[in-house]
Design brief:
The protein is mainly beta. Helices cover 5% and strands 69% of the residues. Strands 1-2-3-4-5-6-7-8-9-10-11-12-13-14-15-16 form a 16-stranded antiparallel beta sheet.
């Protein structure tokens, strides 16, 4: 629901100019200015918006909660608008993923890029970049360095509850649809708890009807563990584990 809409500007044969504009409503507040003259676009925007009522207009995005804050500059043309913005997300939840963070967002036409991004999630932090297109389910790819994540919180996204503990850090990549059921990724990591330290790698793939996670841990050439877990049609579960002399006293520190 809108509580207030205020606009002050002028219209000419070349276009229009909004010197000041304000919108207040259930979704939050928007303030800014906008001009479109001879196909040239310019303006600025400041907003603080509750994401749930906004994404309720896009059912395929699923349930999105939290608050978004944007301070943006607009440019380019009507056919290919350009945006440069500082963005902040607070208490955002997309399905079972929750995070808060900041970043610098730039877009030209349907292409977008997020840089200098930093977020708090899974009990730790992540820094990285991402890029994609504003179409369909928003296809994207991202690269990141994460520190001190809680591994059990992350693995729980795939419907698996584990007793894993420790500080999980490393580098990762991910690509797929931001709002959809197609995600793939993987990377290298270390897991530390007290004086214990394991290193390894992991990969995952998630579609609408299936999920697969594969990972390996090692404490040295002779201490290795590999596991794979698969779920199909939300009911069919399979997996396997194989090891090479991974010491139980070392593994026990992480469970």
């Amino acid at each position: 629901d809108l509580r207030r809409v205020a606009v002050k500007g002028r219209v000419s044969t070349n276009g229009f100019v909004v010197d000041t504009g304000a919108i207040d409503g259930e979704m939050g507040t928007v303030r800014g200015s906008l001009a479109l003259e001879s196909s040239s676009l310019r303006g600025e925007l400041r907003s603080e918006i509750s994401l749930e009522p906004v994404f309720a207009l896009v059912p395929e995005a699923g349930v999105v909660r939290g608050v978004g804050r944007v301070s943006a500059q607009l440019g380019g043309t009507f056919d290919r608008p350009e945006l440069s913005a500082d963005v902040e997300a607070r208490g955002v939840g997309i399905d079972d993923v929750e995070f808060s963070g900041t970043g610098r967002l730039g877009s030209s036409g349907s292409d977008w890029k997020l840089s200098a991004a930093r977020a708090e999630m899974f009990g730790g932090t992540v820094e990285g970049t991402a890029s994609g297109k504003l179409s369909g389910h928003v296809p994207f790819e991202a690269q990141a360095r994460f520190r001190e994540w809680n591994p059990a919180m992350f693995v729980q996204l795939f419907g698996v509850r584990t007793p894993l503990v420790g500080a999980w850090s490393g580098e990762a990549r991910i690509n797929g649809d931001l709002f959809g059921d197609d995600l793939r990724g993987g990377g290298r990591f270390t897991l530390e708890e007290g004086t214990g330290r394991l290193s390894g790698g992991a990969s995952f793939a998630v579609t609408k009807d299936s999920a697969e996670v594969e990972g390996n841990l090692e404490a040295g050439p002779q201490d290795q563990l590999r596991a794979r877990y698969r779920v199909a049609d939300h009911t069919k579960i399979a997996g396997d584990v194989d090891g090479k002399r991974l010491r139980l006293d070392l593994l026990g520190r992480f469970v």
